[in-house]
Write a structure and sequence with these properties.
By secondary structure, the protein is of the alpha/beta class. The chain has a single domain, classed as HAD superfamily/HAD-like (Rossmann fold), CATH 3.40.50. Helices cover 45% and strands 24% of the residues. Helix 1 packs across helix 4, helix 2 packs antiparallel against helix 3 and helix 4 packs parallel to helix 6. It has ten helices and eight strands. Strands 4-3-2-1-5-6-7-8 form an eight-stranded mixed beta sheet, with helices on both faces.
């Protein structure tokens, strides 16, 4: 570990969707955007097939969520930010309690122990801010969609290349906030979290998909699975 990271406050970094939230904030937001008329009613046709394939275990979740992401990107241009933010607030108010007990308790305990709580997700930052602040996170990183002079989304994403690499975001947060990787903890659920998990001292793979689970076995990382009201720790 380099001198760069030998600072003061320890950091705990969490993925959000599927790790804390028992669903995807982006999916719930897209559904709300369609129901409100801010997105066209036929927009869900572009991901419903992948959803059905995933439900029937004939396709993967990655394909499903990727299709939802494309719907969001293709329809966000021209949506008024004010209406978008109001809708995000409603979505969070409706679903904020839909969390995993394991990670919810972990966030609370680490916060009490003095950890700097960091959330990193590929969902829009607007809805992440609404969701994560209620849990006590100190800093939230999410996808930032550009807003034009008319206070409407332009369709562009700010620093998308940076946001797609969670390790780069973690490095930036450590440098900016003066944090330490000594005693650090990271929690993720897919292979996209691997670069982030490689950086921390205690990586935890929570409800991992098959790709992350294989890496956890190879690397000797902790694996925890919450099913109904039971948490299984797998070595």
């Amino acid at each position: 570990m380099t001198e760069l990271y030998k600072k003061s406050q320890k950091v705990a970094v969490f993925d959000v969707d599927g790790t804390i939230f028992r669903d995807s904030l982006l999916i719930r937001l897209v559904e709300a955007l369609i129901e409100s008329g801010l997105f066209p009613s036929a927009a869900n046709d572009n991901y419903s097939k992948e959803y059905q394939r995933w439900q029937e275990r004939r396709g993967g979740y990655h394909e499903y969520i990727s299709a939802v992401v494309e719907v969001f990107k293709n329809n966000i241009k021209g949506v008024p930010y004010g209406e978008f933010k109001d809708l995000a607030r409603v979505v969070v108010a409706t679903h904020s309690k839909h969390t995993y007990k394991y990670t919810r308790n972990m966030v609370k305990e680490l916060k009490a122990q003095g950890y700097y709580m960091l959330a990193i997700s590929h969902s829009p930052k607007t809805i992440l801010d609404e969701f994560c602040t209620t849990l006590g996170f100190d800093k939230v990183y999410g996808m930032i969609y550009e807003i034009g002079p008319s206070d409407k989304f332009t369709g562009a994403i700010t620093d998308e290349h940076l946001m797609l690499n969670k390790a780069n975001i973690l490095k930036r947060a450590i440098e900016k906030e003066g944090l330490s990787l000594e005693g650090s903890i990271g929690v993720g659920d897919t292979e996209g979290d691997i670069p982030m998990l490689e950086m921390v001292e205690r990586p935890i793979c929570f409800n991992p998909n098959s790709s992350l689970y294989k890496q956890a076995q190879i690397r000797g990382w902790e694996v925890a699975v919450e099913r109904k009201d039971v948490v299984y720790n797998i070595k």
